[in-house]
C-alpha cells in the first residue's frame, strides 16, 4: 500500500517540478523585454568595509570593446536594476562570489553571461566558465544569450553539456564556456574527463529554485562545485528565495555577497475590470465577438477551464477569421514554447489557453485578458491568486489594462462576487457590467 502511495507522490512531484522548469522557460519566451521595477535592491556585502560600486552605464564597467558592442547590439541601453550592483561585483578583481535573487525578467541571465564572457581568456583553448541549468531547454536559452552577446567576440566558443551531445572518449574540450545540465556536466568533469574542473574560473548556477525542485540536481550540483578550485568565482541565481533555496545557495557559494530585489506587488489598480452575463458558452462566444467588434484589441489572452472548451473556442474564433494560438496541457514543452514565441512575435493576436496550462505565465505584454471561465480551484472555490496573477500588473507605468469576465450561471456569478469581495479591500474600482446577451 504505502509503496504505491509513495510512487504516486513521486510522480506527482516529478510532474510539478517539470512544470516549474517549463513555466520558467515559457516565461522567458513570452517576455522580450526587461520587467520594469522600481523596487530597491538589498545588498549584503561579504566585506562591508569595501566600497560598494553601482553603475548607471555599461561604459563604466570597462568591458572589452567587443562585448560592449554585443551589449548594444542587443538593444540594451543601460544596466537593469539588478545589473547596476551585480555587474561591478562580478567583474571586480579579485572576483567576488555572489548570490542574487530577483524575479524572472529582471536581467539576471544577461548579467552572468556578461560576467562569463568578460572573464574568459580566448587564447586558452580549454573550458574556463561552467554554467549549469535545470533543463536542456533552459540551457539552450542561456546559450542563445551567450551567442548574441558574444557575437563580436568569435574567438570565444561555447559547448553544450547535455544528454544528447555525445562526444568521443578521450576528447578534451577546446571551448571556453560550457553550459549544461547537472548530470551531464558532472559526467564530463568526473567520469569522462572532457573538462578539467581545476581550470574553471567561473561557476554559474542558474535557476537555483527550479534546480532544487528536481530530484538529484542538488547533489549533482554540489558534487560539481566540490571539484572546482577554491579560487573559482561562484555565482548563484534564483527567482525566489525560500529557505530550501537559501540553504542550497550557502552550500554552493562560500563567502557570498548577496543581492536581493523584492518582487513588485501585483495590484489591480490600473486594470479596468468588467463582466458580461450570458447563459451558455455559445452566448459567451457571441459576447466575445461583440467585444471584438466594438473595440480594437491588439493582443488578448483568453482563459478557459478545460482543454475541451479551449479547443472549441479556438476553433470558433478561427472560423470568425481571428488568428488564434492555442496553448494546451497535452502539448510538449517545445510545442508550447513554439506557440508562445509566435504569440510574442505578434503572429497571432489571440492566445486561448487553460488555467492549468498558463498558471505562472506572465502576460505582461498583453493588454486585454478575458476569463472565458473564471478561475476556480479544484474544490470549485474562487482562485483569487490566479485571478490576480492573470490580471494584475506590476510596475507598468501609464499602461492601463482591461479584463473581461464571462459569467454564464448563478454559480459563476457567485464566484465573481466572491472574487470581487476578496479584492474590495485593496481596490477602489469595482467591476462593471458591460454588455449582456
Ligand atoms: N540592461 C538591459 N536593458 C534592456 N534589456 C535587457 C537588459 N538586460 C536584460 N534585458 C532583456 O530583458 C529580458 C529579461 O532579461 P534576462 O533573461 O536576463 O532576465 P532574468 O532575470 O534572467 O530572467 P529569467 O529568470 O526569466 O531568466 C531579456 O529579453 C533580456 O534580453
From TrEMBL:
A GO molecular function assigned to this protein is:
ATP binding
Q: Where is this motif: Q motif?
A: 56-84
> Which reactions are catalysed by this chain?
ATP + H2O = ADP + phosphate + H(+)
Kindly state which keywords UniProt assigns to this record, in alphabetical order: ATP-binding, Cytoplasm, Helicase, Hydrolase, Nucleotide-binding, Nucleus, RNA-binding
Which Pfam families does the record cross-reference, listed alphabetically? DEAD, Helicase_C
Where found? Cytoplasm; Nucleus
Q: Which residues form the DEAD-box RNA helicase Q domain?
A: 56-84
For this protein, the record's CDD domains field holds: SF2_C_DEAD
- InterPro entries linked: DEAD/DEAH_box_helicase_dom (IPR011545), Helicase_ATP-bd (IPR014001), Helicase_C-like (IPR001650), P-loop_NTPase (IPR027417), RNA_helicase_DEAD_Q_motif (IPR014014)
Q: What broad class describes the main subcellular location of this protein? A: cytoplasm
Please list the residue ranges annotated as the Helicase C-terminal domain.
270-437
Gene3D superfamilies per record? 6.10.250.2170, P-loop containing nucleotide triphosphate hydrolases (3.40.50.300)
EC assignment: 3.6.4.13
What's the top EC group for this one?
hydrolase
Recorded hits in SMART domains, A to Z, give: DEXDc, HELICc
The GO cellular component terms are:
cytoplasm; nucleus
By what name is this protein known?
Answer: RNA helicase
Q: From the UniProt record, report the name of the gene that encodes this protein.
A: LOC109074949
